[in-house]
Amino acid sequence: MYPNLSLANRLGSLARHLLCAFAYFLCSHHALFAQVPGICFSGDNQSATNPGYGPDHASLMNQDTSSLVEYLRKQGYTGRTLEQAALQDAVLHDTASNPHAGRNGAVIIPSTTQDGRIRFQPSYAPHSLPSQKSSLNRVLPTGHEPSVAPNNAFRMVSAATQSIDDLDADPLSSMGPSAEAERQRQSRKADTDSNGSDSQSTLDPHAEVFANTLYPSAITCAKCHQKIYDEWRVSSHAYASISPMFQRFEQLVNDLTRGTVGTFCMRCHAPVATQMNYPRQASLLEGPHIFREGITCVACHRVVERYGRVNGERRIEPGTPFDPVVGNSGGDGIPAVLADAENWKVTTDPNDKRPRQAIHRGAIQFDQLADSSFCAGCHQVVVQPGIALEIVYQQYRQGPAHKKGISCQDCHMGAVPGLPNGYAMGACAEVSGKVYRSDRKHSNHIFYGPAYPIAHPGLFPHNEKALRWKATQWLEFDWRAGWGTEAFEKAIAANPHACSFPASWSNAQERRDARKILDSNLELIALKRSTALQTLENGSRIEGPSFVEHPTTGRNLKFQYRVSNLSEGHNMPSGSLGAQPQLWLNVVLIGPDGSRVWESGDLDTYGDMRDQHSLDVRARKIQPDLQLFNMQTKFLTTNLKGTEREMYLPVNLDIDPLPFFRPAVAPTTVLNHPAFIRMEAHSIAPVDNRIVTYTVPGELIRMPGVYRLSVRMRSRVEPAYFVRFVNGTPDMLRSMNEGIIDVHPHSSEFMVR
């Protein structure tokens, strides 16, 4: 330990170190030991059944409330309530080793049960309280003011009752599972995997319980808000983290940049997992179910501070389902229902075992939730070196919709997909089979947009019945082969050795039950696709063809289409830039004999357009499409010498062998783009249009007669080449190409003389 010292000096130095450590221990724990004797919060008091999650607090849990309060009274606590004193001195004093107040981002407030024992009631974390300088005015409904009443779950601790150490501590240090606990969990997982067992059985139960308690799943919300849940569970928000493209893309970005982006992508796509400090490299399929819910209910309805362009860095207030949520109306129906709790058969007490429906104790009115600025946190995202990956909010701010006072919610949550035509009316919630008011504005939580899912239909849309099987088991279910259908099962019954199944699906009845869930989910996916088509059709128009010259055999045939963006909100297409999305025209000329004379916008054997990304074009199997009309915006990066080339990601692979998102050396406001990188936009601005001109060579127009021009606009969330770039599976590529949405398909006939 001290190789250059004599033995005596070594022993003396070691003794001094031990003495200092012991003195520090006494100083840091003296107040706690003196005020609450018999209660140990030392990190050495680990529970044998709970490794890595802090000490065993059974001694505190078993303390009689009256004796503890009486003892605190004798200690002279007169300037604050006894429960606040107990909270500060017995709980918050050592959050680093307290499993109840440590890693969950919430304060645990001791309160009294009917048998006189102490129970811990989660409330909001002290660092979540707005300061006096905050612009947020937290409005609480009558009867739910901050209080310390024993049975009030919505109790907040005033910052004045906290110690200086508590206020100066890192507010995020106590959130999520500890690193040591995760290492132990991974170790147990590896041991189990080596024994051939299912890896999901090693999921740490504490993380699961914690997530379900303070970050309620959307399934919990569905008990009262079934209509909203049914809309949300097929939405792109619900798809955000379960998307296989997101998971592959996020992993590739971290690989290419040597992890320098950290949780940048996760903050928007998996906000609960990020806030719980779930390791970025860990599989979301092995975490609590709410991690796979993406932008779940609490991701919006438990955000109580105004945020702007923060690249997904928004804090979710932890809380039980009984704690208040935020909304744009203030929840005026909750006090009315609570006032007649016997008639509505509701309860706000988690210990109430009667057959009653749980309900929030109140709601907080949060006006930003209905404003477009609320969307900016995730839909206006800039990544180093100054590239805007999401610019839809910027486009909205510059467009006519913003000037007219039309919000994002008006088009994406209104009555008609993509149009600000008002809202449907309906009840916000159904309580014990009854509704309080049905004349409220109903915001549709399907969040209309052009996207479609490509995940396994057993994993998405979210279905509570699907939780009967683990996520990894669903990935083994070959739904395309017809498992569980009557025809398939009859064939297997006649020839049992015709197909081999994983252990999870060896039972025919299990496969039949799973097929029922899949059929239900596939119907929801069809509904999602129909709303995506409506959104695209309501926001665009194709006019034409119009001929430049009269069609004649042997002469070049020139014609035009006018493509218009009818939306007043943002460009067409909008959303993420670079690799996605794709929106292009597919035009076909059919001759008098029914043969295909000419075509633009068709796909090669891999599903790519005939451009520089086509492997068939590179292999010279087909000719490039020189008249392709593609509205996709692309990244262009500077090569080592002079020229530019298109890149899938804004990462300069040519200059540095270790690529990363480099900080700009010059202000992007001066250059209008980062050095060595720019975006080449082809989208159409709001209420604008573009004339697309095509020319068919005269040598192809040989036969007089009636010709037919067919056109359609095609929408795809990811190009095929990008699916391959992120190491997507063949099934991902197949689903991506099968899901292409055709918009405004129509044909026109004309005579060629």
Distance between the termini: 99 Å
**How does the helix and strand content classify structurally?**
alpha+beta
- Given as residue ranges, the uncertain stretches (5+ residues, pLDDT < 50) are 1-8, 22-183, 192-203
The amount of helix comes to 25-40%
Number of beta strands: 22
Major β-sheet annotation: 4 strands, antiparallel
Large-scale geometry: globular
The total of helices stands at: 27
Tell me the fraction of residues in β-strands, as a range. Answer: 15-25%
Mean pLDDT: 75
Q: How does this structure look, described?
A:
With 753 residues, the chain is of the alpha+beta class. Helix content is 30%, strand content 16%. The chain is built from 27 helices and 22 strands. Strands 16-15-21-22 form a 4-stranded antiparallel sheet. Strands 13-14-20 form a 3-stranded antiparallel sheet. The radius of gyration is 31 Å and the shape is globular. Mean pLDDT is 75; it is low at 1-8, 22-183 and 192-203.
Key traits:
3-stranded antiparallel beta sheet, disordered N terminus, 4-stranded antiparallel beta sheet, 30% helix, alpha+beta, 753 residues
Summarize the structure.
This protein is an alpha+beta fold. The chain has a four-stranded antiparallel beta sheet with strand order 16-15-21-22. Residues 1-8, 22-183 and 192-203 have low confidence and may be disordered.
Write the SSE topology.
Layout: H1 7-35, H2 58-61, H3 65-74, H4 82-91, E1 106-112, E2 118-124, H5 164-168, H6 179-194, H7 205-214, H8 218-221, H9 226-232, H10 236-239, H11 244-256, H12 266-269, H13 271-275, H14 297-301, E3 325-327, H15 333-339, H16 341-344, E4 346-347, E5 357-358, E6 363-365, H17 376-379, E7 381-383, E8 387-390, H18 392-398, H19 400-404, H20 408-412, E9 424-426, E10 430-431, E11 434-435, E12 440-442, H21 471-474, H22 486-494, H23 508-538, E13 540-547, E14 557-565, E15 582-590, E16 596-600, H24 615-618, E17 634-638, E18 644-647, H25 668-671, E19 677-680, E20 689-696, E21 705-716, H26 720-725, H27 730-738, E22 741-752
Parallel strand pairs: 3-6, 4-5
Antiparallel strand pairs: 1-2, 7-8, 9-12, 10-11, 13-14, 14-20, 15-16, 15-21, 17-18, 17-19, 21-22
